[in-house]
Amino acid sequence: MPNNQLVHVILLSTDALVLLGLVLFPSFDGPEGDFLKNEFLELEAYIPYRDQIRPEISKVDVAWHVDHSLRTINEVYKAMSQSNPEAYQSRIHIGRSLLILMDRIPRGRAEAPEIVRPPEIIHTDSLHLMLALAQENLVRLDSLPEKAFFEHPYLGQLRRKTAKRFLEIHTNHHLKIIADILAK
Q1: 52 vs 46, 123, 124, 129, 179, CA distance in Å?
Q2: Above 80 in pLDDT, residue 121?
Q3: What is the pTM of this model?
Q4: Are 69 and 140 a contacting pair, CB within 8 Å?
Q5: Which helix (DSSP H) or strand (DSSP E) does residue 109 occupy?
Q6: Distance between CA 25 and CA 85 in Å, rounded?
Q7: Is 175 in contact with 44 (CB distance < 8 Å)?
C-alpha cells in the first residue's frame, strides 16, 4: 500500500475511533446543574479524609486529589470562557481519541501541569470554596459557544463537548485513586 493511502486509512481509522468513543461513551448532558453532580458529592464526601495517604497507590494525599480535580474544572472553564471560538481548529489527535475510547486515564503516565497543581498546604475551607465555584462553572460552561475551547498540554484543543467529556474522565480518574487510597 503506498504511503499516502496508508496515511488516509490511519486518518479514517482515527475518526472512526473518535466516533465509536462518542457513541459508546457519550457525555452526560442531563438537566442544567446535573453534569458531574454525583462526582461532586463524592469529592465533598472525601474531604473529611483529606490527610489519608497510601504511597503505594499515590505519592499524594486525598486532599491533593480533591484540590487538583476541582482546580482542573475551574481552570478549564476559565480558559474556555477566555477563548476565541473563531480560533478553534478541529484536528485529529490520536491521544485524545484513545482517551475518549478507553474512557479512562492510565495511572502514572502524565504529570499535572503547574496551573492545576495544588499548593503545598491545602486548607479544608479552600476545598469547599473551590467545590462551590466548580459547580457554578460547570453550569456556566453550557452557556459558552460550542467552539469555545481550551488547550490541553497533551491532547491539544478541546472544544466544549470534548472538554466536558475530558472533565468527566479526569474527575473519575482521581475519584478512583482516592477510593484506592481509602480502601483497606
Answers
A1: 10, 14, 14, 21, 11
A2: yes
A3: 0.81
A4: no
A5: none
A6: 25
A7: no
